[in-house]
Amino acid sequence: MDKATRNPQALCDLLGIRHPIIQAGMVWCTGADLVVEVGRAGGLGTLGAGSMYPAELKSQIQRVRSQWDGAFAVNVPLLYPSVEEHMDTLCSEQVPVVFTSAGSPRKWTERLKESGCTVVHVVSSAVFAKKAENAGVDAVVAEGFEAGGHNGREETTTLCLVPEVADAVDIPVIAAGGLHDARSMLAAIALGASGVQMGSRFVMTQENPAHLAFKQRISEAGAGETRLMLKDVTPVRLLKGAHGGFFDQVAKAEAEGESADVLRALLGRGRAKRGMQEGDLLEGELEIGQVSALLKDVPRAADLVAKLVAEYRSFGTSQMSPGFNWNALS
């Protein structure tokens, strides 16, 4: 794709949406109701397959289709044990858009595209972005270090990552990590992105199935209360929970230089579900981005999309830099 034509409208045309706003496919924090609400508002709603058994994923796709005949997406982490069954479902159901992450998309991209799917891959570096482009994906998500959930080890921030990726590839780039309002959308587009993906912001919506206790904890979060942890196992950004709980246990183990095996045993199974879906703030895993410190309200997802679009459209030079005469620059 010619970089001169790589713009938000081109991304919207590619994905079949009205606004270049994508709700991320997060584990334990997505469902058909959220996806449909975002789609009806003009964005792209995404199911997070990483926390679903194959039968549940198929059921969720069918629930979306029973309420909505427009575009939607599914995110599949490629390290998921049942990835082959998920791919069979995505192809047989002809899901319009598939996001792949946490692995190489080369094995699956051709098959997905032959089934009519648009394929987008999530990357944390320009090197991985170029490899994804060479594998045939239609677009990439450049996800910065600020993002919640599973993250890259590179620790490259969105501000640095997006222009680096945009300069490296000729396919549309979607910015992610720390994006939550019209200001951050404007910044992402200025850096070379064609659109934005938001995860943490959509956790804090009424249709999101995350537990109310988790949402309440996010609303109380302050700056510096998230950390990228478990880098020797699987890097994930976590929010501090109850005192002495899982977050503190991991922090202590890492400070004491415990091995990956010890950390893996501490992580165990089911932590994310306990934290985000069941609201266990002590022993659960609470995955959320750095932007959690700015998230206080819980609007309807459609109202959030409408607000993002209206505020983005209202931005002008005078609003970005009030009182500054740009024409005086020489």
Give a structural overview.
The protein has 330 residues and is of the alpha/beta class. It has 2 domains: 3-209 and 296-318, Alpha-Beta Barrel (TIM Barrel), CATH 3.20.20; 212-291, no CATH class. It has 15 helices and 11 strands. The strands form 2 sheets. An 8-stranded parallel beta sheet has the order 1-9-8-6-5-4-3-2, sandwiched between helices. A 3-stranded antiparallel beta sheet has the order 7-11-10, covered by helices on one side. Helix 6 (126-134) packs parallel to helix 7, helix 8 (182-190) packs across helix 14 and helix 11 packs antiparallel against helix 12. The chain is globular. The two termini are 34 Å apart. The model has no long low-confidence stretch (mean pLDDT 92).
Quick description:
This protein has 330 residues and is α/β, with parallel strands linked by helices. The protein has helices at residues 8-15, 32-40, 54-67, 83-92, 106-114, 126-134, 158-168, 182-190, 200-203, 212-220, 246-255, 260-267, 271-277, 301-314, 317-320; strands at 21-23, 46-48, 73-77, 97-101, 118-123, 139-143, 149-150, 173-176, 195-198, 226-229, 236-239. Helix 8 links the parallel strand 8 (173-176) and strand 9.
